[in-house]
Write a structure and sequence with these properties.
There is one protein chain. The chain is mostly helical. The chain is built from eleven helices and no strands. α5 packs across α7. The radius of gyration is 21 Å and the shape is elongated. It starts with 27 loop residues before the first helix and ends with a helix. The relative contact order is 0.15.
């Protein structure tokens, strides 16, 4: 995927379809509503498909380091799945689902609204350099920037809706690592109650630790979102754009399995590029909120301690679960989005 300023469409059968949405003349508000609705569908599907995988990933990332001679809480991916099911039942895989089901549905809708808006801006810019009436393809840097801004839009405190991701990620992560017995939690986090659900967790954190407690780990989350979604949407849109040119079809005419395949590829690319950052984020967000009990001062301190105590492999705890999750979850997200857009475009 070499980055060029812009690549000319090489055939006269596709100029109006690169890309279909970006060159659309529909009113901006109606277009944004469709993007938002389709993104929400994609976000809900993402949570329902991905939550069990994410719970296993976070538990593997944050399990305590065993003392000399002790067995780790989970010896691996399958052991974590087995113990979670045996000790807490199937519902444990969906701990903390309510919050992301609402919040991430909104977040993903925001991602797609921002992504599509920036694509339209870049498409208008590229159209000024058209040669012989042929539009220009998006450059890789344009796609990366569009994705990066879409990701960080979740974390910026611009509007009430866009404040969703920080608290959602923090609260969901805390609920995911709680074991069924409160005593287990008290061992690793003295002074904190066993949270009954997302609302209880939110109220407790806000009452005792204020807005800083709610947004714990926000800076590292924003770092993850910027680069991760830059790679994510770059990979997906690049593959879709290439296929449109190759087949000479519009976006909606592509076979349904292609968004699935390209979505899975985008998921793998994103998580491979940001996984060590995600490990640091999970550890910070499950660390104690009281200074006297905290293991990590900040993200850099966390990274340093992981290196010292666990080595490079410490940054890849739960990586197998993450890769197991990345394919199906992101394939489902993009096919849900694309199919929703096709339905709405016919209305």
């Amino acid at each position: 995927m070499s980055d060029t300023t812009a690549t000319l469409v090489a055939t006269d059968v596709v100029p109006t379809s690169i890309p279909t949405k970006a060159t659309s003349k529909e009113a901006g508000f109606l277009r944004a509503v469709k993007d938002c609705a389709s993104g929400t569908v994609g976000g809900v599907v993402q949570v329902l498909v991905g939550q069990p995988f994410d719970t296993v990933k976070v538990r593997l990332q944050t399990q305590p380091i065993p003392a000399a001679g002790e067995q780790p809480r989970y010896t691996g991916l399958l052991d974590c799945i087995r113990k979670t099911r045996q000790q807490e039942g199937f519902r444990a895989f969906y701990k903390g689902t309510t919050t992301p089901l609402i919040g991430i549905g909104a977040c993903v809708s925001i991602q797609f609204v921002v992504l599509e808006h920036l694509k339209r801006i870049f498409a208008e810019h590229n159209s000024r350099g058209a040669v012989n009436g042929l539009p220009l393809l998006f450059s890789n840097s344009q796609l990366y920037l569009s994705g990066a801004m879409a990701g960080i839009a979740n974390s910026l405190e611009i509007t009430h809706v866009e404040r969703t991701l920080g608290p959602v990620e923090h609260i969901r992560t805390r609920l995911q690592v709680q074991l069924k017995q409160p005593a287990h939690l008290q061992t690793s986090a003295p002074g904190l109650p066993f949270f009954k659900g997302p609302i209880h967790c939110f109220k407790y954190l806000y009452k005792h630790y204020g807005i800083r407690g709610i947004y714990k780990g926000q800076a590292i989350t924003m770092t993850r979102e910027f680069h991760g979604y830059g790679i994510y949407f770059l990979m997906y849109e690049y593959l879709m754009q290439r296929e449109i040119v190759k087949e000479g079809k519009t976006r909606s005419e592509l076979a349904g399995w292609k968004p699935c395949l390209f979505g899975a590829a985008a998921g793998y690319a994103m998580w491979i590029s940001i996984y060590p950052i995600d490990v640091i984020k999970s550890k910070l967000q499950t660390d104690h909120l009281k200074t006297e009990y905290q293991q990590y001062k900040n993200a850099f301190d966390c990274a340093k301690k992981i290196c010292v105590s666990e080595g490079v492999l410490g940054f890849f705890r739960g990586f197998g679960a993450c890769m197991w999750r990345a394919g199906p979850v992101n394939a489902a997200t993009f096919i849900a989005f694309e199919l929703s857009m096709r339905v709405l475009d016919k209305l």
